[in-house]
Design brief:
Helix content is 22%, strand content 11%. By secondary structure, the protein is an alpha+beta fold. The chain has a two-stranded antiparallel sheet with strand order 1-2. It is globular, with a radius of gyration of 15 Å. The termini are far apart. The model has no long low-confidence stretch (mean pLDDT 87).
Length: 91
């Protein structure tokens, strides 16, 4: 029986490569601290530009992005980040 592909060596290499680069979060644009616990909301996670649930490739470096854990969770499986626009009540 096959295991989880996210536990495999190629996936871990991709995560390590992105973490080493030190790119900012691609969703909010802020830096990702490297000295915090992995469970912290601002910790590093690998995010996929095209979500896996929508057919995005797991190991393609062009699909992999650095993100905060909280930004990645808030984005969910949407393929783009929606910006909230506030409209005035004046007509």
């Amino acid at each position: 029986m096959a295991g989880n592909p996210r536990n495999g060596r190629p996936y871990r290499r991709l995560v390590d490569e992105l973490r080493r680069r030190g790119d900012p979060c691609w969703i909010c644009g802020h830096d990702i601290p490297s000295d915090i616990d992995a469970r912290h909301p601002l910790s590093f996670t690998l995010d996929h530009a095209v979500p896996l649930s929508r057919g995005g490739p797991l190991l393609d470096p062009a699909n992999a992005r650095s993100a905060h854990r909280s930004c990645n969770s808030a984005r969910g499986n949407r393929s783009t980040t929606a910006t909230v626009t506030r409209h005035s009540r004046r007509w």
